[in-house]
Amino acid sequence: MAGMLQGKTALITGGGSGIGRATSLLFAREGARVAVADMSEDSAKATVGMINAAGGQAMSILVDVTSAAQVQAMIDTTVAAFGRLDCAYNNAGIAGYQVGASGKRTAEWSEDAFDRMIAVNLKGVWLCMKSELEQMVKQGGGSIVNTASIAGLVGLQTSSAYVASKHGVVGLTKTAALEYAGDNIRVNAVCPGYIETPMTRDTMSRRGAELMAQVPFHRMGKPEEIAEMVCWFCSDRASYVSGSAYNVDGGYMAT
Ligand SMILES: NC(=O)c1ccc[n+]([C@@H]2O[C@H](COP(=O)([O-])OP(=O)(O)OC[C@H]3O[C@@H](n4cnc5c(N)ncnc54)[C@H](O)[C@@H]3O)[C@@H](O)[C@H]2O)c1
Asked: Which of 121, 119, 123, 181 has its CA nearest to residue 147?
């Protein structure tokens, strides 16, 4: 039986770890050729190794999504290798502790920490979308998915700039969906709840019990559970879906 993404080409940022790795593996299993992009070259190569070992087709790309030139080169490399770009998953991102803002309330964030968070999580997504949209307009269509978060839909204490960046990602998603509907390009966002990845280890070690008490399923999600949503968004089965920000969160947003 043909996979959900049979014959498609895909690019995934942050593909070296967590949600991006799980999505890269699923996309390949569903028949896509996958460009795995990450600022950690070793991690991206490790994901590619897993895909190739399982009989899939993938290549790694080193990228820092905060650099417009590197992002454009990433798209050019993908298109040169695969011929076109059907699915783009803009997923690379960082958490507060990675900019030294762990546990800090809004007024306690440093300007540097705020700027770095916005540069990676918001501007990085926009830079990727910009190059991807240009390519997809040229080739006559495509599907883009951005990783937002439940933090893109509600406030979360001590996550000020992270929350702002993810609300921004939802805004970019909705706007581009409107603007490019006539170009046969669908743009959606996935909003994960608390997912078991290297990103959440720090927070969970400090506040795990408190946070899981707020999740109706009383457990973290697995990266594979996010990958399923992204795969569906990118597949032709979601042909009438654009501009949505869909939460995959164990019921968190229903509380
Ligand atoms: N884990 C969660 O609970 C959770 C919840 C909601 C949203 N998210 C979002 O999901 C996405 C993936 O997170 P994850 O949990 O898999 O984290 P992760 O830390 O496991 O993976 C993130 C990956 O992004 C890469 N990356 C970071 N900065 C980059 C840059 N400037 N350029 C290129 N690559 C870069 C890292 O090298 C890493 O491989 C992020 O956008 C995150 O904000 C995660």
From this structure: 121
Query: In whole angstroms, what is the distance from residue 146 CA to residue 245 CA?
Result: 9
Q: Is 43 in the pocket of ligand 1 (CB under 6 A)?
A: yes
83 DSSP 8-state letter? S
Answer whether 18 contacts ligand 1 (Cβ < 6 A). Answer: yes
Ligand 1 centroid to 93 CA: how many Å?
Answer: 4
162 is catalytic: yes
* Residue at 151 is within a domain: yes
CATH number for the domain that contains residue 168:
3.40.50.720
* 252, part of any domain: no
Q: Residue 15 CA: which ligand 1 atom is closest?
A: 39
Q: Residue 48 belongs to what domain range?
A: 9-246
Assigned domain for 53 exists: yes
Distance 213 CA to ligand 1 centre (A): 24
Cα distances (angstroms) measured from residue 1 to each of 97, 109, 174, 231: 44, 51, 34, 16
Number of structural domains in the chain: 1
Tell me, yes or no, whether 27 lies in a domain: yes
Ligand 1 close to Cβ of residue 197 (< 6 A): yes
64 Cβ below 6 A of ligand 1: yes
In the DSSP assignment, the letter for residue 222 is P
* pLDDT (tens place) for every residue of the chain, 255 residues total: 799 999 999 999 999 999 999 999 999 999 999 999 999 999 999 999 999 999 999 999 999 999 999 999 999 999 999 999 999 999 999 999 999 999 999 999 999 999 999 999 999 999 999 999 999 999 999 999 999 999 999 999 999 999 999 999 999 999 999 999 999 999 999 999 999 999 999 889 989 999 999 999 999 999 999 999 999 999 999 999 999 999 999 999 999
pTM: 0.99
Active-site annotation holder among 162, 180, 194, 252: 162
